Structures are given as C-alpha cells and as structure tokens.
Amino acid sequence: MISNSVAETERIASEYASGLKAGDVIFFRGDLGAGKTAFVRGLAAGLGIAPETVSSPTFTFVKEYSGGRLPLAHFDMYRVGSPDDLYSIGFFDYLDSDAIVAIEWSENIEAFVAVPHMTVTIERGENDNQRTITVEEV
Known about the structure:
7 strands, Rossmann fold
C-alpha cells in the first residue's frame, strides 16, 4: 500500500484494525521517523481508542491504552538487548493477554520472541510524505 500523508497512514491502520482479534501481535519495521507510531495511532482509532493519547513509548518501553474494542499495548524495543530486558518490563505477560501487542523496533527482539505475528514494514517513498506499507503474516 502507498500512503501519501500521516493522515492516510492512520486511515490505513484504522481500517486494518477492524480485522484484529484478541492477542494479535504486530511487529513493526521501519527507520526512525518512518511512521510506525502514526500507524499505531491509526490502530488505536480503529479499535475505538482515542488516537490523540498515543505517543511513542521510547523512554517507558510500553504504553497501555484501553477503552476500545480491545486493549492495546504499544512497545518500543529500541533499547532492548536481551531476554532479561523483556522479562524485566513484563513483556511476556502481554503475550498471554487479550491486548493487541504492537512492537516498534521488533528486529531487536525477534531472536528472543518466537510467536505468530504480523509484520508491518514502513519504508520511505519518493518524497518526504510518501510511505510504502507492507503487511505480512508470519
């Protein structure tokens, strides 16, 4: 899919959220500023969660959002380097919950976490606003 704006990325994600079910896990790939958090804002909107409450969990590792059709746990794994880090932030508890688990910088934990998931890759396009969004079931 091609997105030409942040608003369009959020709309695509909101539509995608309609097919999500309890316990789904989404790995995100993309450079800094590619639009991963914008996609998560769109997921929140599609789940019935106020999108304006969604921000990057860079310094907190996880932000939890509720009040929608399903809860949303939004992780940033940029600073995670070992399975011990995952245990210390309670990550594995979320995998056993009904929450949609959205993981930015998932490439940092893929060696430690072998669960069925979807991968959303967001790549910069031909101009500053354009993004190519690819969703893959793993």
